[in-house]
């Protein structure tokens, strides 16, 4: 067992660091050795031990001085390669940005650094976050630690796989249409997408600006809290960042206080910690497309919540299927706009041979972007073009508002949280949908509506399925706006009663 894997939580590792039973440098060295040994998973895109040890030594100095150490001092994490970082390369897993090193850190990176976290490097992902399986990386697919022939989910597959394989305690990810929740589900770890606007997007390489949101992945809910609370907060450099959250200042401490208040209520309720909680279960989440093994695991998880006193309420989200075409109009349209900056002029890949500026731009993009990125740019450009804007993009925005209203209707009159599956099936095989790339889009049916509405949601391990019976299944828990702390407390309550989050792949 590697030294850094001897601890079952960030809190336990923090206690050991502060008691000087272990050093941040020792933990960093152990984690780097584990990352080197797990190269076959293709999780990391860039590791620089000198940068990691510099951060670890700084943490050790503060801990040795007896100064009040930051809450994550010495804790090894890693960042999805969609966050720009000083020192480490920031490529968005694309040839377009191969070798690019940012002159500044993303806000998420800098805030976790200020909290004392030690970064191991940059994690593989789908190119520009476009994908549901992490097969679209220009640097090869990430492999699922539970089955190396299966996908880890996307686009934050490297982040989920790194946590599942025990390489880091936690990792950052991004969620545009499910890209934190889906890989968390398929890799058997926990992940949360907070309310849109609560975490800064500054320095996060853009895909769909009205949808992108950063979120952490870890083994269990309490570790998610350790990252999400310091990550969150208003950032004047991000035009979409919120100053207040339902009347409360958007700042570190908000989510933790909400978590502690809900956790205390659960503790005081005794053997029925969730008595009074109404769980909405959408009928549309349990249609013909849901695999029997996934349905069975979700039903068992819901039964666990009911055993703790929660009430199950049937609800309807009638526009669930419409979330797919709505998302795949809006997101590609925004991607077409965001990726127009990669023209071979200022930064990024530039073709070696071209006749004029127009040809240089065309050749640079053709060579630098992968097939999925080109596909979405073409879709987005089409729906924004003259004569089609009203018919597609504007209509999609109208349906988006209806989807928002469906969720708000449910929360206002029927339930406190919504639960259901994250994905219709367990992880598919790598290359399974190579001949039909659009088939991957259909796997997002349960996650897209949440992203379109900007709601917080998370994925919790709740079972296993597949032919081998060894592929993880995730439960999705959806809350109303700004309820991240409540969701994490409910998840923690579930994880105190179950052990799915403690299961690990054989080699981890």
Automatic annotation (TrEMBL):
<dbReference type="GO" id="GO:0016740">
    <property type="term" value="F:transferase activity"/>
</dbReference>
<dbReference type="GO" id="GO:0005524">
    <property type="term" value="F:ATP binding"/>
</dbReference>
<dbReference type="InterPro" id="IPR020556">
    <property type="entry name" value="Amidase_CS"/>
</dbReference>
<comment type="similarity">
    <text>Belongs to the amidase family. GatA subfamily.</text>
</comment>
<keyword id="KW-0648">Protein biosynthesis</keyword>
<dbReference type="Pfam" id="PF01425">
    <property type="entry name" value="Amidase"/>
</dbReference>
<dbReference type="GO" id="GO:0006412">
    <property type="term" value="P:translation"/>
</dbReference>
<dbReference type="InterPro" id="IPR023631">
    <property type="entry name" value="Amidase_dom"/>
</dbReference>
<dbReference type="InterPro" id="IPR036928">
    <property type="entry name" value="AS_sf"/>
</dbReference>
<keyword id="KW-0808">Transferase</keyword>
<dbReference type="InterPro" id="IPR000120">
    <property type="entry name" value="Amidase"/>
</dbReference>
<dbReference type="GO" id="GO:0050567">
    <property type="term" value="F:glutaminyl-tRNA synthase (glutamine-hydrolyzing) activity"/>
</dbReference>
<keyword id="KW-0067">ATP-binding</keyword>
<comment type="function">
    <text>Allows the formation of correctly charged Gln-tRNA(Gln) through the transamidation of misacylated Glu-tRNA(Gln) in organisms which lack glutaminyl-tRNA synthetase. The reaction takes place in the presence of glutamine and ATP through an activated gamma-phospho-Glu-tRNA(Gln).</text>
</comment>
<feature type="active site" description="Charge relay system">
    <location>
        <position position="155"/>
    </location>
</feature>
<feature type="domain" description="Amidase">
    <location>
        <begin position="31"/>
        <end position="488"/>
    </location>
</feature>
<comment type="subunit">
    <text>Heterotrimer of A, B and C subunits.</text>
</comment>
<protein>
    <recommendedName>
        <fullName>Glutamyl-tRNA(Gln) amidotransferase subunit A</fullName>
        <ecNumber>6.3.5.7</ecNumber>
    </recommendedName>
</protein>
<dbReference type="InterPro" id="IPR004412">
    <property type="entry name" value="GatA"/>
</dbReference>
<keyword id="KW-0547">Nucleotide-binding</keyword>
<feature type="active site" description="Charge relay system">
    <location>
        <position position="80"/>
    </location>
</feature>
<keyword id="KW-0436">Ligase</keyword>
<feature type="active site" description="Acyl-ester intermediate">
    <location>
        <position position="179"/>
    </location>
</feature>
<dbReference type="GO" id="GO:0030956">
    <property type="term" value="C:glutamyl-tRNA(Gln) amidotransferase complex"/>
</dbReference>
């Amino acid at each position: 067992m590697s030294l850094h894997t001897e601890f079952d939580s960030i809190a336990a590792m923090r206690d050991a660091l502060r008691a000087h039973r272990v050093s941040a440098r020792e933990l960093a060295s152990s984690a780097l050795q584990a990352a080197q040994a797990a190269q076959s998973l293709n999780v990391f895109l860039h590791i620089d031990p000198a940068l990691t040890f510099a951060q670890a030594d700084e943490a050790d100095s503060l801990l040795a001085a007896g100064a009040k150490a930051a809450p994550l001092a010495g804790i090894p994490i890693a960042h999805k390669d969609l966050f720009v970082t000083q020192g480490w390369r920031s490529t968005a897993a694309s040839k377009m940005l191969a070798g690019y090193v940012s002159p500044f850190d993303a806000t998420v990176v800098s805030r976790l650094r200020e909290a004392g976290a030690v970064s191991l490097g940059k994690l593989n992902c789908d190119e520009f976050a476009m994908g549901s399986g992490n097969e679209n990386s220009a640097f090869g697919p990430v492999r699922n630690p539970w089955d190396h022939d299966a996908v880890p989910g996307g686009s934050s597959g490297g982040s989920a796989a790194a946590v599942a394989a025990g390489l880091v305690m936690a990792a950052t990810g991004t969620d545009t249409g499910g890209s934190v929740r889906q890989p968390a589900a398929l890799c058997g770890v926990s992940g949360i997408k907070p309310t849109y606007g609560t975490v800064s997007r500054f320095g996060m390489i853009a895909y769909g600006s009205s949808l992108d949101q950063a979120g952490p992945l870890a083994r269990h809910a309490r570790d998610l809290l350790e990252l999400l609370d310091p990550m969150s907060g208003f950032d004047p450099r991000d035009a979409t960042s919120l100053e207040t959250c339902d009347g409360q200042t958007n700042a570190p401490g908000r989510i933790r206080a909400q978590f502690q208040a809900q956790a205390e209520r659960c503790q005081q309720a005794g053997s029925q910690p969730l008595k009074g909680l109404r769980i909405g279960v959408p009928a549309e989440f349990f249609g013909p497309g849901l695999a029997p093994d996934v349905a069975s695991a979700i039903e068992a998880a819901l039964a666990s919540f009911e055993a703790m006193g929660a009430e199950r309420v049937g609800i309807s989200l009638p526009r669930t299927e419409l979330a797919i075409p709505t998302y795949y109009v809006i997101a590609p349209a925004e991607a077409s706009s965001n990726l127009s900056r990669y023209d071979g002029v200022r930064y990024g890949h530039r073709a070696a041979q071209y006749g004029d500026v127009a040809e240089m731009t065309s050749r640079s993009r053709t060579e630098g972007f992968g097939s999925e990125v080109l596909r979405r740019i073409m879709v987005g450009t089409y729906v924004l073009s003259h004569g089609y804007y009203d018919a597609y993009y504007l209509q999609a925005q109208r349906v988006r508002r209806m989807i928002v209203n469906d969720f708000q209707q449910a929360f206002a009159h029927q339930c406190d949280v919504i639960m259901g599956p994250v994905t219709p099936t367990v992880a598919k095989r790598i290359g399974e949908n190579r001949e039909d790339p659009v088939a991957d889009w259909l796997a997002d049916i349960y996650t897209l509506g949440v992203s379109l509405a900007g709601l917080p949601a998370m994925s919790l391990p709740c079972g296993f399925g597949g032919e081998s019976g060894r592929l993880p299944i995730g439960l999705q828990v959806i809350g109303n706006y700004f309820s991240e702390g409540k969701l994490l407390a409910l998840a923690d309550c579930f994880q105190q009663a179950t052990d799915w989050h403690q299961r690990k792949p054989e080699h981890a």
